[in-house]
Amino acid sequence: MPTLTQVKYTNPKIGKTLKIVGIVLAALILVTVGIYVLHRSGLLAKKEDTDARSYTMTPEMSQITMESDLHTGYLFSRTQKILQEDRGTDPWVVNWYVIPGTTRTVPAMQSGYVDAFDQVLLLETYVSEGSRSKADSLMKAIDDELCCEDGTLRAFIRLPKRDQVEYADGSIYENDVFEQLDQAPVSMKATNRYLRALLNYYDRWGGKKVLNRIKDLAAIVFGSESTTSYKAADRIAAPTPIPVTEKSLVPEVTEEETNPSGVVSQTGIELSSLDLEALRRTAVLLPEYQEKYDALVQIVKDGKISENLPLYAWMYLDEESYTYYAGSEMSVELVPSLYTMVYLAEIGEMDQSSYAWVSGQIYNSGYLFTSYDLISGEATTETEALEAYPLVMYLAMIKGDEELFEATFSAMMRNYATLDTSEALYMYFREVENGRIAVYARENLLAEIYIR
Predict the structure, then answer these.
(1) So what's the pLDDT on residue 253?
(2) Could you tell me the pTM of the whole model?
């Protein structure tokens, strides 16, 4: 006699009904999954036009990179691993990490701070490669932890759970004197670049929430809040961009510099903070800002220092008055001027003499240095500006200048790690104090954005 488990329904109507129900459920699941995928991809999102432009490598430029030692497929993954995953700082990337030496007395070192501009570049990279979940997570972290009450971005924050700089075990070396100020200074450079990242996100995935964030940020960057209040102590107090191996090498803030009543302040618009392409796209999206955008473009164009040194002023004050450099020495920093040139080039307003000057530096010496004398135009330091090379390569891409691209790419590849045993393998590195090797987020993220 058969058991109950052996009994089968043989009614054909019941079997047919169950089959139909199964097919319908499977179809519903497929439709639901399909709609979700389409929604996440942004294809179903209602988006307004921002007139985004893109500049990519010519086939000849791509060939130059392919014939080199550069592994573009590894660059970003290595950047994430070394500056985020291994540091345990997700979703942040630290701004620098010094690889350990060959003995225990030469330990690894890392920055104890999160640089806002680096995080915005990381967000751009996530958007570019279509990593929406990572982009969402990072945007939330930026809005929660890097944003001031008015919506601007702080220049930097201390990494969580790092209440004191640790010198004893060699794990972190950083200038922590910024804590003597009330708070980290606002970075309009990061704030404006964040606007670009949000526009890129919106163009790809849409979303009313992101559009509202763009509108809020636009009101800030086009308003009176776009000025940057600079104090002499701000730069001294910022996390040092160069790791040092001895605490005594960390600069100290004097009593005069930390006394609010004694600090020399200057307020204006930093030219290198004005991401003109982001502002142009915002004005396309929100036409009420077109007039202000045109005015800002003219302010930047008029900020060229001279024909002898066609770099750009540091800050616009008022009534067509500019400050050409920060600090007490008549020395103009190169990298801020290069950002200004890039932003002008993206909107078709690049000054030809500026482009020729930068090209000449590459062709004549093969090096770009961090600062140049205001009068003579000669380099005032032997410190190489490694952040400058991806910016100049991008200028060459915008211009379609394959010769300048190749020369600049070759200069940048001098500092590309190819040794299999190196922790910095497949990344761009800097040589810092005492011959130590450091990797920085900045040039690696810029390279990923421009030459991926």
Answers:
(1) 46
(2) 0.85
